[in-house]
Design brief:
Helix content: 10-25%
Strand order of the largest sheet: 1-2
Distance between the termini: 54 Å
Order of helices and strands: EEHEEH
CATH architecture of one domain: Ribbon
Largest sheet: 2 strands, antiparallel
Shape: extended
Strand content: 15-25%
Length: 84
């Protein structure tokens, strides 16, 4: 199903209105939690799965085959009451 809509200002953010028939089709309703992520040039919205297992650090980096060398980042001088 394809639908064209417009991005509208909503407070300090922007939003997209989704018709009820589209939400019904994917079993979403008012106040359901969703996960939003970007993939290439698309925005993906999926129903949040509370039972989803969080991945371990080993699982997250399972496909990483490069060398990692940490670097120190210069954040500049303190501008408030930061403790250095």
């Amino acid at each position: 199903m394809k639908m064209q809509t417009t991005i509208v200002k909503w407070g300090n953010s922007q939003g997209v209105r989704l018709p009820k028939h589209i939400l019904n089709r994917v079993h979403l309703s008012d106040h359901d939690e969703v996960d939003v992520y970007v993939e290439d040039d698309s925005i993906i919205i999926k129903k949040h799965c509370k039972d989803a297992k969080h991945k371990t650090i080993q699982e997250l980096f399972a496909g990483f085959n490069d060398e990692y060398e940490p670097i120190e980042i210069n954040w500049g001088e303190p501008v408030g009451k930061e403790i250095w």
